[in-house]
């Protein structure tokens, strides 16, 4: 079974720059989909005003890694870096099932 790759994380931002980082991360980028990105969602939580939440779903870990070499992605990272606090967290995992995408199964042994 082919499994997709998920990256769910948090980006700590310098006080007052959350909306700037959100604007950078949500700028239209058709190259992401062309490179194997299935989902890229950016969110906020008013209880955490200096945090941006990101949920990514990729065709594979390799597609995710390769996306970091796309010039537009590198430019967005370069633009956002000075606004980040360095406090980052999250998880990566292989998706083994989804009730809405018709995926069911167990991890390959």
Write a concise keyword list for the protein shown above:
alpha+beta; 28% helix; 109 residues; 4 strands
Please render the helix and strand layout as text:
Layout (H helix, E strand, L loop, with lengths): L3 E10 L4 H8 L4 H5 L2 E7 L7 E8 L2 H7 L3 H10 L3 E12 L14
Antiparallel strand pairs: 1-3, 1-4, 2-3
Describe this structure in words.
By secondary structure, the protein is an alpha+beta fold. The protein has helices spanning 18-25, 30-34, 61-67, 71-80, and strands at 4-13, 37-43, 51-58, 84-95. The protein is 28% helix and 34% strand.
- Computed over alpha carbons, the radius of gyration is 15 Å
Order of helices and strands: EHHEEHHE
Number of helices: 4
Number of strands: 4
Record the strand order, biggest sheet: 2-3-1-4
Structural class: alpha+beta
Main sheet characteristics: 4 strands, antiparallel
Portion of residues within helices: 25-40%
Name the overall outline.
Answer: globular
Tell me the distance between the termini.
11 Å
Question: Poorly predicted ranges (pLDDT <50, ≥5 residues)?
Answer: none
Mean pLDDT: 91
The proportion of residues in beta strands is 25-35%
């Amino acid at each position: 079974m082919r499994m997709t790759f998920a990256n769910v994380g948090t980006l700590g931002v310098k006080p007052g720059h959350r909306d700037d980082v959100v604007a950078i991360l949500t700028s239209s980028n058709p190259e992401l989909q062309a490179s194997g990105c299935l989902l890229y969602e950016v969110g906020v939580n008013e209880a955490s005003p200096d945090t941006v939440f990101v949920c990514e779903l990729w065709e594979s870990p390799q597609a995710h890694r390769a996306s970091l070499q796309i010039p537009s992605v590198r430019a967005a990272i370069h633009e956002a870096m000075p606004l980040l606090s360095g406090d980052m967290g999250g998880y990566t995992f292989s998706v083994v099932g989804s009730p809405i995408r018709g995926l069911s199964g167990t991890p390959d042994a």
